[in-house]
């Protein structure tokens, strides 16, 4: 069983930056890929960025260049933290940002219930 928990959301102005954190814990979680998804009001959940278990990143075209994902090495194999640095925020980045974990590779499918999902963190960008 893997638990994931997001933090770092908030209310910001357009052009600001945030760092979102996804703390994952569980047996051999260091071998899991971790991804960020987001769901804006009235829209489908979408993939944002992910990193596989060895730290190779992948980005959605819509955020590449503005968002950076990174993975923090843990002292044990039972915990890992993935950060999403979001820069030059736009009002259209307003959404609930979710973290998901899956074995080895970065999760890419927004509706896959087999992933381990967090509860989400709200990001609101004001113009």
Largest sheet: number of strands, sense, barrel closure: 7 strands, mixed
Overall mean pLDDT stands at 95
Roughly what percent helix?
A: under 10%
Radius of gyration: 14 Å
Q: Quick one: how many beta strands?
A: 11
**Number of helices, counting only DSSP H or I runs of 4 residues or more:** 0
The helix-strand sequence is EEEEEEEEEEE
Percent range for β-strand residues: over 45%
State the end-to-end CA separation.
40 Å
What is the 3D shape? globular
Structure class? mainly beta
* Poorly predicted spans: none
Q: Which key phrases capture this entry?
A:
127 residues, mainly beta, 7-stranded mixed β-sheet, 4-stranded antiparallel β-sheet, 11 strands, 0% helix, globular
Topology readout:
Elements lengths: L1 E6 L2 E4 L4 E9 L5 E8 L6 E6 L5 E3 L7 E6 L6 E8 L8 E9 L12 E2 L3 E6 L1
Parallel strand pairs: 2-11
Antiparallel strand pairs: 1-3, 3-8, 4-5, 4-9, 5-6, 7-8, 9-10, 9-11
In brief:
With 127 residues, the chain is an all-beta fold.
Can you give a write-up of this model?
The chain is mostly beta strands. The protein has no helices and eleven strands. Strands 2, 4, 5, 6, 9, 10 and 11 form a seven-stranded mixed beta sheet that branches. A four-stranded antiparallel beta sheet has the order 1-3-8-7, with no helix packed on it. A hairpin with a 5-residue loop joins strand 5 and strand 6 (57-59). The radius of gyration is 14 Å and the shape is globular.
């Amino acid at each position: 069983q893997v638990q994931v928990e997001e933090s770092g959301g908030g209310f910001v102005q357009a052009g600001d930056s945030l760092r979102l954190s996804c703390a994952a814990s569980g047996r051999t979680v260091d071998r899991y890929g971790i991804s960020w998804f987001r769901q804006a009001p009235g829209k489908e959940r979408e993939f944002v960025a992910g990193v596989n278990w060895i730290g190779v990143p992948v980005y959605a075209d819509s955020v590449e260049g503005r968002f950076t994902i990174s993975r923090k090495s843990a002292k044990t194999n039972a915990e890992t933290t993935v950060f999403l640095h979001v820069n030059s925020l736009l009002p259209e980045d307003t959404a609930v940002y979710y973290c998901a974990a899956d074995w080895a590779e970065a999760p890419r499918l927004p509706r896959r219930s087999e992933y381990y999902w967090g509860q989400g963190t709200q990001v609101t960008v004001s113009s």
